[in-house]
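re: ur msg from earlier - yeah i can do the 2-acetamido-2-deoxy-beta-D-glucopyranose complex, just paste it... oh wait u already did. ok heres what im feeding in:
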Amino acid sequence: MRLSNVLSTTAAVLHLIGKAQAKAVFAHYMVGTVDKDHAQQDIDNAISVGLDGFALNIGDPTESYVGATLEYLYDYASGTGFKLFVSMDVSESGAACNAGRSCCNGPNDYSSIFSQFLSNEASYLGPNGLPMISTYSSGGVEPDAWHSWKVSLDFQMYFVPMFDDTDGYYDSTSGWWSTWGNLVDGVFSWEAAWPTVADGSSTDVGSLSPDMPVINSASASQKSYMIALSTLQYKDAVRHARNRDCELLLTDTKQYGTNLYRPGGLNLPIRMNNILGIASQLDFVEIITWNDGPESHYIGNVWSESSDSSVMYSSPQAAFPHAAWQPLVTSFIEAYKAGGTMAPPSGATAVGSMWYKTILQDASCSGATPPSGWSTGTDSLTWAIVLPSGSSGMKACLTSNGSVISTVSVNPGLNFGSPTGVQAGAQMLQLLDSAGNVVMTATGGSWSECGRWQRKLQQLN
Ligand SMILES: *[C@@H]1O[C@H](CO)[C@@H](O)[C@H](O)[C@H]1NC(C)=O
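and the outut:
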């Protein structure tokens, strides 16, 4: 057999068992104004984290920055092995349409983007060998309109939309599958990533119970499942929609712009554990997000030039960098792909970090409107530490303003906790060896009672 025959036979076999082959991990990437070198740095950083690609969230596709940002990303990704696919944010494009923009045709507004980039070498190909396309929401677009849009692209896609806004989705009703099932190659659930606003039940933190009915039906229908993994969600972003003459049309606190707090400091590590427990039933993981500043769940870079001037927040990167979550994500990705447990990089003692909000539950801070759901917050130091197999006798010690609030044993794999008793001041996580010596520390900075709901992160060094 000639080599080319071997390769094509292998490709055919891979195609047949394609569902079992897909084990990619992506991050949701908000497409905005970005400098070329920053777009490139995003890809370099994402490769270092171990991500396979970005799901490129595009709201209003007629925005002037879209073309340049996509060119920077696709040009740089080509040849690196890092992949990209478009996530049509038809919710946002519909909102932009309502605010006077000319993107009023749902997925059809993205046709020039697809004609330019769908066959790009950097496009992520699904198990059917065709470029992946995703969405953020159905945008209220009806099934027959989605079908017509697929016809317009001659069905040349691997379609994994996020349609969790449609009737019956999370119940995974037979009605849902008969209405939508034929349109999709896989499904992706967004809201399942966090407990709902004001849900204070600790059992819902990081739970897969919203995902499971959909995972089971997707599997029974030979469709793939993309599971969402997120750190947390706190957003304070009030949108001020303007028309093309920059006149203020509305101040909208209901859509993207809102001020809310979803509970679950431990959402990230608990969901990591749960996802690893059912990894064999999953195809794709999408980390939400790489760079969504206003929603606070970014793990990557939030560049100042990307800050949406119509949203009332300033670039959070400087005060609240989130890179300290990245080593946990890297360890998760390796375990997910290998079907094993989380471990630090070979030779490392541990990876880990600590995160906390810098405002106390009983703080009375003038001028600040507490976010919806704030009462489910706790004054905690949340931490996660990953230890290699073979480590023994180690402990995690949490200190708040000079007082030890927790000391617990930590074992090989992923450990986490969220002890309460935080006081304003300096916070510290220490990893102790079996003799009680400090081997690694996460600390830095001090704060007073009226800080922010945004989480402050410190990495174990
Ligand atoms: C933090 O510790 C210092 C020193 O012990 C103490 O004076 C201060 O009251 C503590 N702060 C709080 C908020 O308890």
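cool cool. The chain has a mean pLDDT of 89. ping me if u need the other ligands too
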